[in-house]
Specification:
With about 575 residues, the protein is α/β, with parallel strands linked by helices. Helices cover about 45% and strands about 10% of the residues. The protein has 24 helices and 16 strands. It has helices spanning about 40-60, 75-85, 90-100, 105-120, 125, 130-145, 170-180, 195-205, 215, 240-260, 285-290, 315-330, 345, 365-370, 375-385, 405-420, 440-445, 445-450, 460-470, 485-500, 520-525, 535-545, 550-560, 565-575, and strands at about 5, 10, 15-20, 165, 185, 205-210, 225, 230-235, 275-280, 300, 335-340, 395, 435, 455-460, 505-510, 530. The protein has an 8-stranded mixed β-sheet. The protein has an 8-stranded parallel β-sheet with strand order 15-14-13-12-11-10-9-16. The model is unreliable at about 65-70 and about 345-355 (pLDDT under 50).
Length: about 575
Amino acid sequence: MSFSLHGVGVSKGIAIGRAHIIERAELDIVEYSISDEALVSETRRLREAVAQAKLDLRAVRDEIPAKTAVDIAAFIDTHLLMLEDATFTVDTERIIKERLCNAEWALKLQHDALAQAFDDMDDAYLRTRKDDVDNVVSRIQRILLNHAPIKLEIQGHRLEGMIVLADELTPSDTVLMKRNGIAAFATDSGGPTSHMSILARSLGIPGIVGVHGIRKYVRENELLIIDATEGVVVGDADHATLAFYRDKQAERERHLISLHRLRAAPAVTLDGCAVDLQANVDLPEDFVAAHDVGASGVGLYRTEFLYMNRSDSPDEQEHFESYRSLIEVLDGLPVTIRTLDLGADKAFAREPGRHVATNPALGLRAIRLSLREPSLYWPQLRAIVRASALGPVRLLIPMLSTLEEARQVVANVRAVQSDCAKNHLAFDANMPIGGMIEVPAAAICADQFAPYLDFFSIGTNDLIQYTIAIDRVNDAVNYLYDPLNLAVLRLIAGTIDAAAAEKIPVGMCGEMAGDIRYTRLLLGLGLRQFSTHPSLLLELKNIVNMTDVSSVEKSARLALETTNPDELKTLLATLV
């Protein structure tokens, strides 16, 4: 009898194949004391395990085809860089010496401290970076404990066409899946912004995460259907169900071929409205992906990765070199650089005595932190101003909540520009300065912010959760996370209207921007700039090119007065 399990689809597509279950043995890590005489041999054992982990990852990287469209090797390099970090060597060796304990236990203590720092972060995207720490530590621990390699790494092409089921997967697992022809995957845990999920989208591997208990209900080699578009796993399917999904699979393939043809096509509605489709860039490896789908620029460049896995802060030149490399790759396309959007809990995680906020999402973070801590803020600000001389650069202020913050940032930029002029450093005096509208206070007062800023960018992820007062990564309440909540829609519409009144551009860079269920609604409300993950951009362009804005404007405005959720869904169904 057919059954279905549900999770979160992280990359679209349908796959039909036999299940291969990866069972990673639980790591049994215990503490035991060592003698002073054993210190040298124990620290050597740790170093040798780290060295072996590096060799293993380099072997995986060598498996990546040279002509892969996206710089997939950068994901593996991220883990290699973490292995070079003192966090996994010097700091762990210090614990061994201080506690006279075994390497496994010292590494566990170091991992727990790092994991807590990530858990306390305010940004949901950055919290998922803890997965990388878990992956790297697990790899070292398995070597220390003499665990055999996981099945995926030793079976090679015998897994071609199969569907992998696991508790979780690492970026290296994902690369090997593509190399070995695995059709799809489903995991018990994981999130849509993990490296694994980003890689799956880039590589075109259908994948579903958060399918709790899937390995309890599926047998090895059982025939499965993965519908990653809908987030559904179907087992024990009958002939009719198989035929239905095979038709959907063929239809999906035809659709992808047609989408690829849109790469160089303009994004213009049926009634002639030009729409600007840009890409969100989280990590350097996304640069090429943005180019490959014909993005008109980078609508959001997150700079937080520059601060990760280190005890110090990047200096001005490090910031500048990072921005220069992006500008060079974009070759004349515009880039919007968002200043630091971390909380004090992360930026000063290793500073002794620093108080960690109990609710960091509402604490000292983003522009609040930047204005409070000049040593973090000014090197980045100077680097962005200098980078503006190299290409079309826009500066984006995260988490604006007061008008005084906007005024202060503008004044700071002018001060940096004046100093650059005195020192004969090139810059663009007309570099646009914009604000992220992600706090309800800023959305409500958007008409007051507009005269002081050159553009708006609506950050729906935080705007939605702040407006409804829920944590979207909390399983107990994330069912309330709803982009169609009437209060959210009114804040979005008010922001768009305020920008139009002041004649400044307004875009959207949150997840809602890349969800084609809402594209026509947003177009009807007046949005003309979308920035989303590169993998979603061609789908978005397809909807834009098939929309008549004049025919959806009335329904979109009616949505702002509709209080019944069922009536709202019926209304949105008319936006075709």
